[in-house]
Amino acid sequence: MIALRPGSHTHNLITILSVTGEFPVRSLPLLGNPRVVRLQVHKLESAQSYRTEDGEKVFRGKLLQLSGKGAGKTVRFFRPGVEILPHLYDGAYEYYMNAYDGHRFSGEAIRIDRHHRVAEAVAMMMRAGIEFRPYLLPSLQKAERQRIVAEGCTFYLARSLKNASAVTEEINKTMFSRIVGAAFFHNEVYAVYNTRNALMKWVGRSEYKVLLDLTELSRMNALIENVNSAILFGKDYDIAIRSIAVMEKKEQLHFRFNSVYSHIHFIPLDEFGIRFLKLMTLPDWKSRLREVMFGVDCSSGYLPVDCDAYLNDTYMFSHLDGDLTRLVNIMDPIEAEPWRYEVFCFPEQLSLVRSVLSKEVRIKLISMDDVEQALLEGDDAYE
Asked: Which of 2, 28, 55, 317 is the most exposed place for a label (fewest CB within 10 A)?
């Protein structure tokens, strides 16, 4: 008999499917140890008995089924398995049946890929401890300005963003957007995208309309006036390198993602990315990163170039925030005087940083362990 304990692989997978409808088989490692998770999924494809933590028997039968093949292979509920949802969360069954047309799924590759993009983003949020379940979150609205979004960190799916627009015309603004949701982290809002393992063809005009709609939703529901940042999930840093190459093509302004968002924080879809996402959930995380790295008195007022500190005639620049836009913006100044720069990054980001900056630039590596220790314990690990 399988116990449905919060935090277990089975409980996590059921929770994600209750929101996203399906999950890509190739991304199961996002949920934990790849071998353990795959074995558990295989087990849930056969008839099992399920009970809650307090011992109540809630379901007997086959819970999951696998469909498709190759990159499109997907995990879904076996139809009777959906009946387990009312025993876990109030409103989950109703949400699922409404969102997925009574458990009917399209076989179109483009729709499956869309669901998979959302599912991977949800998995990252779940692993980072961010609330994402629509049936447990207050609904967004555009009727009046008030604080509806819960304090702390929450993730609203693109479906919720679209439903918040009462006028059909406004819903159509976001129909063809690549956005998978919006993250409300304390006093910051991030549009969330997932490019997976292929470079997206961003259409800036469409995404700018999304930004305007998201800004309005933020004002009406979180009392946050401006939205200028995005989270970009991708398979690895090779995708980040290719994304920067697109940003540099000035003749294709309408395809440049950084023409819409002033800050684009790249996060790989792996365990390092989960730890990075957790850093972003800390209040004033960017200011705290700068303080940990350089102290509060390192900057000497106005500086002619964008940097985080100026010491010993050297401009110090931190890429620990993963901001692709900012990295692109300093490329030209660094090319002019590379010996005057020192760039800090995580070892996982080294291939990206080294690919876009001059070989003469000094790069210093900082481990995630040290950053976590400094931020979470309040100690300066880099003195």
From this structure: 55
